[in-house]
Protein backbone atom coordinates (compact mmCIF):
# COMPACT_ATOMS: atom_id res chain seq x y z
CA UNK A 1 0.00 0.00 0.00
CA UNK A 2 1.27 3.52 -0.75
CA UNK A 3 0.78 4.65 2.84
CA UNK A 4 0.09 7.95 4.53
CA UNK A 5 0.74 11.36 3.01
CA UNK A 6 1.50 14.23 5.34
CA UNK A 7 0.49 17.73 4.24
CA UNK A 8 1.49 21.11 5.63
CA UNK A 9 1.97 24.68 4.45
CA UNK A 10 4.39 27.57 4.81
CA UNK A 11 3.71 31.23 4.28
CA UNK A 12 0.24 32.08 5.55
CA UNK A 13 1.46 35.08 7.55
CA UNK A 14 3.80 36.95 5.17
CA UNK A 15 2.83 40.12 3.34
CA UNK A 16 4.44 38.95 0.10
CA UNK A 17 5.09 35.83 -1.94
CA UNK A 18 3.06 32.66 -2.40
CA UNK A 19 1.65 30.32 0.17
CA UNK A 20 3.32 26.94 -0.35
CA UNK A 21 2.17 23.46 0.64
CA UNK A 22 3.99 20.15 0.54
CA UNK A 23 2.70 16.59 0.50
CA UNK A 24 5.02 13.69 1.24
CA UNK A 25 4.74 9.93 1.63
CA UNK A 26 7.52 8.34 3.65
CA UNK A 27 8.15 4.59 3.68
CA UNK A 28 6.90 3.09 6.96
CA UNK A 29 10.33 1.69 7.82
CA UNK A 30 12.24 4.85 6.93
CA UNK A 31 14.08 6.39 9.86
CA UNK A 32 14.73 10.11 9.57
CA UNK A 33 16.05 11.56 12.80
CA UNK A 34 15.24 15.14 13.74
CA UNK A 35 11.92 15.74 11.98
CA UNK A 36 9.79 18.30 13.79
CA UNK A 37 7.85 21.48 13.10
CA UNK A 38 10.00 23.40 10.60
CA UNK A 39 9.68 26.59 12.69
CA UNK A 40 11.62 24.88 15.48
CA UNK A 41 14.62 24.11 13.25
CA UNK A 42 17.47 26.27 12.00
CA UNK A 43 17.61 27.03 8.28
CA UNK A 44 20.65 24.77 7.87
CA UNK A 45 18.97 21.89 9.69
CA UNK A 46 15.82 22.28 7.60
CA UNK A 47 17.81 22.16 4.38
CA UNK A 48 19.71 19.06 5.49
CA UNK A 49 16.52 17.28 6.51
CA UNK A 50 14.75 18.32 3.31
CA UNK A 51 17.45 16.60 1.25
CA UNK A 52 17.08 13.41 3.30
CA UNK A 53 13.28 13.51 3.14
CA UNK A 54 13.25 13.94 -0.63
CA UNK A 55 15.76 11.12 -1.04
CA UNK A 56 13.87 8.66 1.16
CA UNK A 57 10.29 9.60 0.30
CA UNK A 58 8.09 7.27 -1.72
CA UNK A 59 6.72 10.45 -3.28
CA UNK A 60 6.64 14.17 -2.55
CA UNK A 61 5.07 17.18 -4.21
CA UNK A 62 4.87 20.95 -3.84
CA UNK A 63 1.79 23.07 -4.47
CA UNK A 64 1.45 26.84 -4.25
CA UNK A 65 -1.00 29.70 -4.59
CA UNK A 66 0.40 33.01 -5.77
CA UNK A 67 -0.35 36.48 -4.34
CA UNK A 68 -3.06 37.10 -6.94
CA UNK A 69 -4.87 33.94 -5.91
CA UNK A 70 -4.46 34.85 -2.24
CA UNK A 71 -6.04 38.25 -2.89
CA UNK A 72 -8.88 36.73 -4.92
CA UNK A 73 -9.71 33.80 -2.65
CA UNK A 74 -8.45 34.91 0.83
CA UNK A 75 -5.49 33.31 2.58
CA UNK A 76 -7.40 30.34 4.02
CA UNK A 77 -8.88 29.27 0.69
CA UNK A 78 -5.56 29.88 -1.09
CA UNK A 79 -3.83 27.67 1.50
CA UNK A 80 -6.35 24.88 0.91
CA UNK A 81 -5.82 25.29 -2.85
CA UNK A 82 -2.05 24.94 -2.42
CA UNK A 83 -2.59 21.81 -0.31
CA UNK A 84 -4.92 20.33 -2.91
CA UNK A 85 -2.36 20.97 -5.65
CA UNK A 86 0.36 19.34 -3.55
CA UNK A 87 -1.61 16.17 -2.90
CA UNK A 88 -2.85 15.84 -6.47
CA UNK A 89 0.73 16.35 -7.67
CA UNK A 90 1.99 13.21 -5.93
CA UNK A 91 3.32 10.64 -8.39
CA UNK A 92 2.03 7.91 -6.06
CA UNK A 93 -1.38 8.50 -4.55
CA UNK A 94 -1.77 7.66 -0.85
CA UNK A 95 -4.47 5.64 0.86
CA UNK A 96 -4.67 8.23 3.67
CA UNK A 97 -3.90 11.93 3.91
CA UNK A 98 -3.08 13.64 7.20
CA UNK A 99 -3.29 17.44 7.08
CA UNK A 100 -1.98 19.92 9.63
CA UNK A 101 -4.72 22.08 11.11
CA UNK A 102 -8.50 21.76 11.26
CA UNK A 103 -9.49 22.30 7.63
CA UNK A 104 -9.11 20.00 4.64
CA UNK A 105 -9.17 20.87 0.94
CA UNK A 106 -11.93 19.51 -1.27
CA UNK A 107 -10.42 16.85 -3.50
CA UNK A 108 -13.55 16.03 -5.50
CA UNK A 109 -14.01 12.87 -7.53
CA UNK A 110 -10.26 12.28 -7.73
CA UNK A 111 -10.11 11.51 -4.03
CA UNK A 112 -9.51 7.81 -3.42
CA UNK A 113 -8.13 8.23 0.09
CA UNK A 114 -9.40 9.01 3.56
CA UNK A 115 -8.55 12.45 4.94
CA UNK A 116 -7.74 13.40 8.52
CA UNK A 117 -6.95 16.82 9.96
CA UNK A 118 -4.54 17.02 12.89
CA UNK A 119 -4.28 20.19 14.96
CA UNK A 120 -0.62 20.76 15.77
CA UNK A 121 0.22 17.91 13.41
CA UNK A 122 3.62 19.31 12.47
CA UNK A 123 4.71 18.76 16.09
CA UNK A 124 3.18 15.37 16.78
CA UNK A 125 3.06 13.57 13.43
CA UNK A 126 6.44 12.94 11.72
CA UNK A 127 5.03 12.72 8.19
CA UNK A 128 3.31 16.11 8.63
CA UNK A 129 6.52 17.49 10.14
CA UNK A 130 8.35 16.28 7.04
CA UNK A 131 5.85 18.13 4.84
CA UNK A 132 6.31 21.29 6.89
CA UNK A 133 10.06 21.12 6.31
CA UNK A 134 9.70 20.65 2.54
CA UNK A 135 7.20 23.50 2.29
CA UNK A 136 9.33 25.90 4.35
CA UNK A 137 12.57 25.13 2.50
CA UNK A 138 10.88 25.50 -0.88
CA UNK A 139 9.21 28.78 0.01
CA UNK A 140 12.36 30.26 1.54
CA UNK A 141 14.22 29.53 -1.70
CA UNK A 142 11.48 31.22 -3.71
CA UNK A 143 11.76 34.33 -1.56
CA UNK A 144 15.55 34.40 -1.84
CA UNK A 145 15.15 34.19 -5.62
CA UNK A 146 12.65 37.08 -5.50
CA UNK A 147 15.23 39.17 -3.67
CA UNK A 148 17.30 39.43 -6.86
CA UNK A 149 14.30 41.00 -8.62
CA UNK A 150 13.13 43.19 -5.72
CA UNK A 151 16.26 43.81 -3.60
CA UNK A 152 14.85 46.91 -1.91
CA UNK A 153 12.43 44.86 0.23
CA UNK A 154 14.93 42.45 1.80
CA UNK A 155 13.01 39.28 0.97
CA UNK A 156 16.19 37.24 1.48
CA UNK A 157 16.19 38.23 5.16
CA UNK A 158 12.56 38.18 6.29
CA UNK A 159 11.01 35.99 3.55
CA UNK A 160 8.08 38.39 3.23
CA UNK A 161 7.05 38.35 6.89
CA UNK A 162 5.92 41.68 8.41
CA UNK A 163 9.15 42.62 10.17
CA UNK A 164 9.97 46.22 11.01
CA UNK A 165 12.42 46.36 8.08
CA UNK A 166 9.82 45.01 5.67
CA UNK A 167 7.18 47.46 6.83
CA UNK A 168 9.65 50.33 6.49
CA UNK A 169 10.47 49.27 2.92
CA UNK A 170 6.77 49.07 2.12
CA UNK A 171 6.23 52.58 3.41
CA UNK A 172 9.18 53.86 1.40
CA UNK A 173 8.67 52.04 -1.91
CA UNK A 174 5.06 50.89 -1.84
CA UNK A 175 4.06 47.34 -2.76
CA UNK A 176 5.53 45.32 -5.62
CA UNK A 177 3.83 42.68 -7.78
CA UNK A 178 4.62 40.00 -5.17
CA UNK A 179 2.83 41.72 -2.31
CA UNK A 180 -0.57 40.59 -1.09
CA UNK A 181 -2.83 43.57 -1.62
CA UNK A 182 -5.60 42.08 0.53
CA UNK A 183 -3.36 42.25 3.63
CA UNK A 184 -3.92 45.41 5.68
CA UNK A 185 -0.30 46.68 5.93
CA UNK A 186 0.09 46.33 2.15
CA UNK A 187 -3.18 48.16 1.47
CA UNK A 188 -2.14 50.91 3.88
CA UNK A 189 1.25 51.34 2.21
CA UNK A 190 -0.34 51.40 -1.23
CA UNK A 191 -2.87 54.03 -0.12
CA UNK A 192 -0.14 56.16 1.46
CA UNK A 193 1.94 56.10 -1.72
CA UNK A 194 -1.13 56.98 -3.80
CA UNK A 195 -1.97 59.89 -1.49
CA UNK A 196 1.63 61.12 -1.70
CA UNK A 197 1.57 61.01 -5.50
CA UNK A 198 -1.79 62.79 -5.68
CA UNK A 199 -0.62 65.48 -3.27
CA UNK A 200 2.56 66.12 -5.24
CA UNK A 201 0.69 66.26 -8.52
CA UNK A 202 -1.80 68.72 -7.06
CA UNK A 203 0.99 70.81 -5.62
CA UNK A 204 2.76 70.96 -8.96
CA UNK A 205 -0.18 72.45 -10.76
Task: Classify the fold: give the CATH topology.
Answer: Nucleotidyltransferase, domain 5
Fraction of residues in H or I helices: 40-55%
Q: What value does the Rg take, in angstroms?
A: 19 Å
| SSE string, helices as H and strands as E | EEHEHHEEHHHHH
Structural class determined from secondary elements: alpha/beta
Average pLDDT for all residues: 92
Tell me about this structure.
This protein has 205 residues and is α/β, with parallel strands linked by helices. The protein has one domain (4-149): Nucleotidyltransferase, domain 5. The protein is built from eight helices and five strands. It has helices at residues 43-56, 67-73, 75-88, 121-124, 126-149, 155-158, 164-173, 184-204, and strands spanning 4-10, 19-26, 57-65, 96-100, 114-118. The chain has a five-stranded mixed β-sheet with strand order 3-2-1-4-5. Helix 1 (43-56) packs across helix 5, helix 2 crosses helix 3 and helix 7 (164-173) runs parallel beside helix 8 (184-204). The longest helix has 24 residues, at 126-149. The protein is globular. It starts with a strand and ends with a helix. Mean pLDDT is 92; it is low at 196-203.
Summed up:
The chain has 205 residues and is α/β, with parallel strands linked by helices. It contains eight helices and five strands. The protein has a single domain, classed as Ribonuclease H-like superfamily/Ribonuclease H (Nucleotidyltransferase, domain 5, 2-Layer Sandwich), CATH 3.30.420.10.
